[in-house]
Amino acid sequence: MIIKGVVKKDRKTKDLVKRLKPGDIAIINHKDLDEIAATSLAESKVRCILNLDKTISGKYPNQGPNILLKAGIPIFECSDKDIFNVLDEGDIIELKDNTIVYKNDSIAPCEELDNEKIQQLLNIGYDNIEKELDKFIENTLEYAKKEKGLVLGNIDIPEVNTKMKGRHVLVVVRGKDYKKDLMAMKNYINEMNPILIGVDGGGDALLEFGYTPDIVIGDMDSVSDNCLKTSKEIIVHAYTNGKAPGLERVKNLGLNAVIFPSPGTSEDIALLLAYSNYADLIVAVGTHNSMIDFLEKGRSGMASTFLVRLKVGSKLIDAKGVNKLYRSSLKPRYMIWLAAAALIPIVVLTLLFPPMKELVQLMQIKLKTLFGF
């Protein structure tokens, strides 16, 4: 098999997918390729993936590679990280006989991860999951003691212009199946008109569905300039010492923002913000709330998420996977009744219209003659 295409490369997969076009060869440096990244790559319809790191390390059973295989996108691995510097974006390369060919020269070996190889690596991850779970629990409990202020109210909540009291608040994170979940919730959004909070790239997710975020909150590393300019308010997640690396980007765009120093994740403080502003109901879409979710984000524990959900639980509805909760389909019996209902006015009009009435009577006579009634 020979695969030829234009090189697109980036050390951050989430930045790379913004530039990919169908038919490109995506060079990534992504250990344990997660589902979100894989889905974005698959949607870009690239010709193949060339990963300069372990696509599956065996640490846990990450499902990103399976998503690419289902999309018909081959995955290759190359252990020579210098390839990233040797090739420039826009170069044309070939992957031929497990070799990277550039300008007719073989520059490095590579290996295709077929389905059998992926399943072997995933099985190692499944065998290792108990050990990872033990580490995860220990880290979660250790940091929960340090971050208990999230529950006790020791975190200063910044003042915002958006009024949430008595309103529904929809918090959107660009997590697994966020598109399907947002699609399933369109009627809810249109009817209830909730306050819309986008967590980093979640703001772009709202824009993608035609909604303007009331608030964008996060460290500003994965949200577009367009979203920041469109959003009504911006809140930059800062470290507990007040340092906020994302603030400089906002200022460079000529925009204003408030700072929210807090431990934990940006989605955690989004929930805290809504709760502390007396939201009547908080609906979360695409949030990370399981061990696998956190391992895919490179986090070793979920102390802040555990504590925040403990605090806001009475008002929180997690809509993750809501698209699978109810799938409406038009059953055959409904179609029969629908057809019958549609025929009623036709029959009534036919019987009331004299020429049609005579035609029906004529048909009745022919049927009696034909069948000997």
From TrEMBL:
A single Gene Ontology biological process assigned to it is: thiamine diphosphate biosynthetic process
Q: Keywords of this protein's UniProt record, alphabetized? A: ATP-binding, Kinase, Membrane, Nucleotide-binding, Transferase, Transmembrane, Transmembrane helix
Any keyword Transmembrane? yes
The residues covered by the SteA-like C-terminal domain are 320-371
Q: Does the keyword Repressor apply?
A: no
Q: Which residues cross the membrane?
A: 334-353
What molecular functions are annotated in GO for this chain? Answer: ATP binding; kinase activity; thiamine diphosphokinase activity
**Source domain of life:** Bacteria
Which InterPro entries does the entry mention?
Answer: Put_SteA-like (IPR047795), SteA-like_C (IPR022215), TPK_catalytic_sf (IPR036759)
Protein name, per record? Putative pyrophosphokinase
Higher taxonomy: Bacteria, Bacillati, Bacillota, Tissierellia, Tissierellales
